[in-house]
Specification:
287 residues, Rossmann fold, binds guanosine-5'-diphosphate, single chain, seven-stranded mixed beta sheet, alpha/beta, 14% strand, 10 helices
């Protein structure tokens, strides 16, 4: 029943075997890419290229919608990107500082990427997953009501800085909007903004605050779909297609390809690391 409803809702874009209605189990929590490369091919694809895995269930003529070839690195590229995220004595990955205002942000020449999203979207979990090869890094969380929300800066070797922006809610306080807005508008070394959207519920009203900011300031940004382990493939595919349509028709600055991830199964994490290494100019990929 669910499959039929979905098919009519999405204009017959995909084939829906009955099994797709089931919530898929986490298949692996492998962290290092060397371990991932030892997985059977189907498992490897699910873990490393979650969009490719979803694409198999689309009718061939609808597949280009997913823009899979826009960023399509080789396994070698992904393996190379991992070294940037692996803490060693020569590649120190560490929390640098926090700031409430851009004036207090570290003045850095390194390229920077920032992560923004609604409270509870899974931002801390995603950053922890990206830094899983640097277990000493403490991803700070200040969720208690009344606590001042800050931007947290993390140094990733000599390569780039990753900024964890405070989560926004439906009624984002004005000073918070000002903080994020000033940062997005004025941070000179900001290479890319990663805007997190919960794949279970899709784009919410509060997400539009961030989308509108990125569009208004003509920033290049990327949509990352979190918690993909929580939904059935059918539900996830429906959300992906809806968000993809939104990106294609309503945005200018958003990267056409979506990045679905799970901080639980690590699905999509290796590809996202590779993308970050690529856009910060540290890794030239074929993708
Ligand atoms: P933040 O407020 O955006 O930093 O969100 P958190 O990272 O604290 O996550 C909010 C809730 O979602 C927590 O209960 C997490 O355990 C859960 N969560 C985050 N990422 C995932 C994910 O990929 N899969 C699942 N199943 N749960 C997640």
């Amino acid at each position: 029943m669910a499959a039929r409803g979905l098919l009519s809702g999405m204009g017959c874009l995909f084939e829906m075997p009955a099994a797709l209605g089931l919530v898929s189990r986490p298949y692996s929590t492998s962290q290092t890419f060397a371990e991932v490369l030892r997985l059977p091919k189907t498992q490897l694809t699910k873990l490393v290229f979650p969009l490719q895995e979803l694409q198999r269930h689309l009718l061939p003529e609808s597949r280009p919608v997913l823009h899979l070839k826009t960023f399509d690195p080789s396994l070698e590229d992904i393996a190379r990107a991992e070294s940037f995220f692996t803490a060693t004595t020569r590649n120190r990955i560490e929390y640098l500082s926090s700031a409430e205002h851009l004036d207090h942000a570290p003045d850095l020449l390194r390229p920077e990427v920032c992560f923004i999203g609604r409270s509870n979207v899974g931002k801390s979990s995603l950053i922890k997953a990206l830094f899983s090869l640097a277990p000493e890094v403490e991803v700070r969380i200040s969720k208690k009501p009344g606590h001042t929300k800050k931007m947290n800066f993390f140094k990733v070797g000599k390569h780039f800085t990753l900024v964890d922006m405070p989560g926004y809610g439906y009624r984002a306080p004005e000073d918070f909007v000002n903080m994020v807005e000033t940062y997005l508008k004025e941070r000179k070394n900001l290479m890319r903004t990663f805007l997190l959207v919960d794949s279970v519920v899709g784009i919410q009203k509060a997400d539009n605050i961030a989308i509108e900011m990125c569009e208004e300031f003509a920033l290049p940004y990327v949509m990352v779909l979190t918690k993909i382990d929580k939904s059935s493939k059918g539900h996830l595919l429906k959300q992906v297609l809806q968000i993809q349509k939104f990106v294609a028709t309503k945005t200018q600055g958003c990267f056409p390809q979506l990045f679905p991830v799970s901080a639980v199964t690590y699905s999509g994490i290796h590809l996202l690391r590779c993308f970050i290494a690529n856009i910060t100019g540290n890794l030239k990929t074929n993708g």
